[in-house]
């Protein structure tokens, strides 16, 4: 992520930058500081959710979890790399909250980012509905998370969403925000983490890790069964990751204790 002296420090945190990048010659104008980052979050989340939903709706049965795992992971990696210097490439409410709590973005951008991510999720889900066949769409409930059908697996699914979101959020924070561990490979790192999470936990919770990814299909398909799991789990996981980095794993500047 860009450090505080760089362009993205004013509006969000970039998931792909290098220490050698030069400071812009001119100051950012209002559009570049406020509106363009929000548009980047809206467009990036829209296409991530669109591609992710299509991969689930049109999933080839023989591919199992591999198809959605690869599609979601590669989509994250590509969108992060493309949008990093525009918005910081969050595309996920828990990422935005964790990045803010670790000092990676200004407070006035948090709510606009969250709103753009949720709207992008709805737009992406609507695009997936327009593209796919009605039969496959109905069968998959529009790629809403329909795996949970009774109370018995709720505990494991909720724990899985917390733990897996914590893992991917720590990759974001340590790979992009924390100066000591910052890496230009963070798009690849985040994408790979999404892939292994989906492969590992897809049959337990569906591996959402992103309320915007859950909210869009739920709105478009009107499927809300156990939808709360995909808000509570990812947000809790993101907050735990932020606490770990803020209190224990962060560098001297980020860490609040044991300095």
From TrEMBL:
Membrane-traversing stretches: 34-57, 69-88, 95-115, 154-177, 184-202, 228-249
Family assignment from sequence similarity: Belongs to the MIP/aquaporin (TC 1.A.8) family.
Protein name: Aquaporin 8a, tandem duplicate 2
Annotated membrane topology: Multi-pass membrane protein
Subcellular location: Basolateral cell membrane
PANTHER family named among the record's database cross-references: AQUAPORIN TRANSPORTER, AQUAPORIN-4
Keywords: Cell membrane, Glycoprotein, Membrane, Phosphoprotein, Repeat, Transmembrane, Transmembrane helix, Transport
Cleaved signal peptide residues: none
Main location per the UniProt record: membrane
Single Gene Ontology MF annotation: water channel activity
GO cellular component: basolateral plasma membrane
Keyword flag Nucleus: no
Pfam families assigned to the protein according to its UniProt record, in alphabetical order: MIP (PF00230)
């Amino acid at each position: 992520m860009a450090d505080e002296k760089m362009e993205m420090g004013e509006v969000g945190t970039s998931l792909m930058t290098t220490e050698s990048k030069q400071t812009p010659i001119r100051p950012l104008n209002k559009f570049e500081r406020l509106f363009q980052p929000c548009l980047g979050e809206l467009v990036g989340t829209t296409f991530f959710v669109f591609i992710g939903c299509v991969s689930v709706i049109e999933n080839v049965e023989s591919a199992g979890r591999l198809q959605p795992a690869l599609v979601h992971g590669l989509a994250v990696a590509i969108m992060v790399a493309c949008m990093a210097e525009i918005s910081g490439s969050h595309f996920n409410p828990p990422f935005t909250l964790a990045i803010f709590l670790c000092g990676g973005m200004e407070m006035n951008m948090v709510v606009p980012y969250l709103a753009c991510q949720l709207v992008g999720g709805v737009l992406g889900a609507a695009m997936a509905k327009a593209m796919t066949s009605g039969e496959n769409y109905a069968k998959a409930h529009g790629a809403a998370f329909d795996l949970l059908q009774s109370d018995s697996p709720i505990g494991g699914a909720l724990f899985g969403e917390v733990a897996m979101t914590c893992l991917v959020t720590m990759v974001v924070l340590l790979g992009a925000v924390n100066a000591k561990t910052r890496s230009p490979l963070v798009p690849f790192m985040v994408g790979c983490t999404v892939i292994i999470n989906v492969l590992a936990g897809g049959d337990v919770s569906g591996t959402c890790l992103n309320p915007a990814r859950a909210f869009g299909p739920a709105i478009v398909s009107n499927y809300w069964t156990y939808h709360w799991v995909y808000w509570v789990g990812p947000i809790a996981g993101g907050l735990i990751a932020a606490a770990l980095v803020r209190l224990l794993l962060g560098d001297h500047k980020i860490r609040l204790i044991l300095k």
